[in-house]
């Protein structure tokens, strides 16, 4: 493991902690897209089906379990524990426009036409666009709480750091995964506008508000 992947995993873990703490301490999931969180849960479930059949390391297995547990804990908080605070009126992105293309793409472009490999590929494609309902929700409301902004920044940083991880692995190990790289680039590009607003507003103590 290299420093970029480790930093990416830490950033990902930090994003999850920020999100769960935000919901639990405020006793509210206002401003959080349940649809994005549902797609992240599907992403981790389909990606980590090999959890008990393909052991790599204690670190790898532990991170998989953490991401799975955290994703379902988040869904529990949004759809059950604090359901009354869920802003379904603004969480209106049509997720079928993301799910159907990623299913088709995973069937057409994959490393091996086998069930686990197709599901892994599907998870890579789905994760690259899973944040869109959340970004769409922010665009509809026109603003985001600072803690939600920190969550999004940490989540976007995780993918950007993973791109550096792939660059490092290419030059240090001669290894690359084109599917993961392209999907990671797409996902990072989706965050670009948000990154700009985060740096120019949130880091300067202002509330993240989109231009009218």
Automatic annotation (TrEMBL):
Keywords tagged on the record: Endoplasmic reticulum, ER-Golgi transport, Membrane, Protein transport, Receptor, Transmembrane, Transmembrane helix, Transport
GO molecular function terms listed in the Swiss-Prot or TrEMBL record: ER retention sequence binding
Keyword Transport annotated: yes
Localization (cell): Endoplasmic reticulum membrane
GO cellular component term of the entry, any: endoplasmic reticulum membrane
Transmembrane segments: 6-25, 62-80, 92-111, 117-138, 150-168, 174-199
Topology in membrane: Multi-pass membrane protein
Keyword Transmembrane helix attributed: yes
BP GO terms, sorted: protein retention in ER lumen; protein transport; vesicle-mediated transport
Protein's recorded name: ER lumen protein-retaining receptor
Species this protein is from: Petrolisthes cinctipes (Flat porcelain crab)
């Amino acid at each position: 493991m290299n420093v970029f992947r480790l930093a990416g995993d830490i950033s990902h873990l930090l994003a999850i902690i920020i999100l769960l703490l935000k919901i639990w301490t405020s006793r509210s999931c206002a401003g959080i897209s349940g649809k994005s969180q549902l797609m992240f849960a599907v992403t981790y479930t389909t990606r980590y089906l090999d959890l008990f059949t393909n052991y790599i390391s204690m670190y790898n297995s532990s991170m998989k379990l953490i991401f799975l547990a955290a994703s379902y804990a988040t869904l529990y908080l949004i759809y059950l524990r604090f359901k009354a605070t869920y802003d379904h009126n603004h969480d209106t992105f049509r997720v079928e426009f993301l799910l159907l293309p990623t299913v088709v793409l995973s069937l057409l472009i994959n490393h091996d036409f086998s069930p686990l490999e197709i599901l892994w590929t599907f998870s890579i494609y789905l994760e690259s666009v899973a944040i869109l309902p959340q970004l769409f929700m922010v665009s509809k409301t026109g603003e985001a709480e600072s803690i939600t902004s920190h969550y999004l920044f940490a989540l976007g940083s995780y993918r950007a750091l993973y791109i550096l991880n792939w660059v490092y692995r290419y030059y240090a190990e001669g290894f690359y995964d084109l599917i993961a790289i392209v999907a990671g680039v797409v996902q990072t590009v989706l965050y670009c506008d948000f990154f700009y607003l985060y740096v120019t507003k949130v880091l300067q103590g202002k509330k993240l508000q989109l231009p009218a």
